[in-house]
From TrEMBL:
Its EC number is 3.1.2.-. CDD domains: 4HBT. It comes from the Bacteria. This is Acyl-CoA thioester hydrolase. It holds the Pfam family 4HBT_2. Keywords: Hydrolase. InterPro entries: 4-hydroxybenzoyl-CoA_TE, HotDog_dom_sf, YbgC/YbaW. It comes from Paenibacillus sediminis. NCBIfam families: YbgC/FadM family acyl-CoA thioesterase.
Amino acid sequence: MFICEVEVPVRYAETDAMGIVHHANYLVWFELARTKYLDDIGISYPSIESRGFLIPVLEVNLTYKKPFRYGETALVKTWIEQYEGLKVIYNYEIYNGQGELCIEGSTSHVVVKKENFKPINIRKHLPDLHTACEENKR
């Protein structure tokens, strides 16, 4: 199982009136990590789009354990938790500089045709993505 790691500096614009990262920004961090994960396993998202496919989010789950504040750096760890040929589930853990787990989450995705948003069989239409998911899933 491959685990991707990406560091994200907490920017001032990501914080709310309480001085902590607004909850919606964790979804942006998930996307940064997921895109890097695909790059790291040899599949660029732009290459998928150029072939006429998109990978929309179906479901998001987040659990907040500790907040992040401006000036801190988050370490986002990402991996494929589940893959069965149609749906891909990514898991995420976000740690602070002290190595404490602050955020846990997951996102579920399918690959769809760009023209009509109909789900496709990844194995059949994107064999390189299928192989990479199979080789790197948990």
